[in-house]
Amino acid sequence: MNEKLAIYPGTFDPLTNGHISIIKRALKVFDRLVVAILINPNKTPLFTLEERIFILKDIFRGEPNIEIDSFNGLLVDYAVKKNASIVVRGLRALSDFEYEFQMALMNRKLNRDIQSVFLMTDYKWFYISSTIIKDAARCGGDIKGLVPPIVNEKLKQKFGFSKD
Ligand code: COA
After folding, report:
1. 163 alpha carbon – ligand 1 mean position (Å)
2. Edge to edge, what strands does the sheet with 66-71 contain?
3. Distance between CA atoms of 159 and 138, rounded to whole angstroms?
4. Domains annotated on the chain, with CATH
5. Is the pLDDT of residue 162 over 90?
6. Selected catalytic residue, list 43, 57, 81, 124
7. Catalytic residue flag (residue 92)
8. Is residue 14 in contact with ligand 1, taking CB distance under 6 Å?
9. Residue 40's closest CA among 16, 68, 71?
């Protein structure tokens, strides 16, 4: 069978319901999805790579079509290594477009065999980003319903609001 494999790359610091919306949509289009956490030298993440891998593996436990992995270096090189020719990205508002367009064109310049595919994030998650979630959680704001329960709990632990 000619299986359609796609890569969904990101920093996922932390994963939000917006990311989950894209993952679910992607699985309606592709047979398998690699959720690939970038070891990003441009960002100082709140969650270590190990913590992010743990969270994603916990959430997608029992989903045989989702692989959790990490990478550094060029996304297109990573895609080749995984034998994938499709990169999935989510679009929230028009404001995402410019950045995504720039990245897609750069990736195309680097490797013409890799296609970027954009999926729309559910409108419910249009206003959230990992940063805004962290900002609200840092000040003790209620972010229930915007992130999976495990992320909510881990954020509370990070910011000292956990009852445990
Ligand atoms: N719902 C909610 N939020 C979303 C979202 C969604 N569906 N999709 C993205 N976001 C948010 C993220 O939470 C993140 O928020 P933050 O900036 O507050 O942390 C932001 O949008 C963008 O994050 P992300 O999707 O993780 O992308 P990124 O910009 O951190 O990384 C890579 C993008 C990994 C694809 C890109 O940096 C990359 O490919 N790097 C490898 C190096 C490379 O190949 N470079 C050359 C090509 S550009």
Report:
1. 32
2. 66-71, 32-38, 5-10, 86-91, 115-120
3. 6
4. 5-158 (3.40.50.620)
5. no
6. 43
7. yes
8. no
9. 71
